[in-house]
Amino acid sequence: MSIQLAVAPVPTLRERRRAAATQEIIEAAEHHITAHGPHALSLRAVARTLQMTVQALYHYFPNRDALITALITKAYDDLAGAVQEAVDTAPHDDEDLPTLVVAAEGYRRWAIAHPELFQLLYGAPLRHYKAPVDGPTTQAMKRMSAVFQREMFAGFTTAQLAAIDAPALTPGVRALLDHSAGEPGHLPAPATALMLSAWGHMHGLVVLEVFGHTPFLSGHQDDFFRTSMRHMLQGIHGRIPSA
Question: Do 40 and 68 share a domain, yes or no?
């Protein structure tokens, strides 16, 4: 009995050309955002950079929202890739450094290196743009948060996470988190609440630095961030009961 493996169809020349043109448009839009900020993005400016008409650009992105959705999705994927790469390439000689701290530092480095794209993700919402419900931007964000979830709670059982000593939740929030906990891959409500608080802590420090609000640290941002992440993780694990 022979086993036949499915072979992916080879893209046609037309499909390859379309994929290349789409990638070129996205890269031009990213360069425009880097130079002028996300709120200055326009299809006309991107088309002018590529020496094409706006009407020709519409063959690849039917409207501004479609291009923005592609840009946000790519930015989230790039950020998630930077976080995962930080974990994968962490030096093995520093076993005292938790991988959650390594992941957080990867997040921070990407944000500092790409402030305009970080602003596209987490700055003031772009006017008149509305992300598709549960669309590619949502899925890309979930991929990134999954890395932090894994590193934050690695080694703990579901029973332990359900018994976390978390602050009391209002009935409405508790019902929402309990509903989400029933879906595959989701955490028990107490763990989700704790992770959201930790996310706010980490993300808040990065936002302050990227947007220029930490000059008073006089070049000690690296040390302050690492120490803060260590203490945050110790506090989280201190709330989780032993097995």
Answer: no
Block means of pLDDT (10 residues each) for the chain, 243 residues, are 65 88 95 94 92 93 93 94 93 81 97 96 91 88 90 93 88 83 75 93 96 94 97 95 87
Nearby residues of 117 by Cβ (< 8 Å), 6 or more positions away? 30, 33, 34, 38, 75, 78
Domain count, the chain: 2
Measured CA distances, 150 to 84, 147, 164 (Å): 11, 5, 16
Nearest to 109 by CA among 88, 148, 81: 81
- On whether both 179 and 224 belong to a single domain, the answer is yes
**pTM here?**
0.89
- 3 belongs to a structural domain: no
Domain for residue 2, yes or no?
A: no
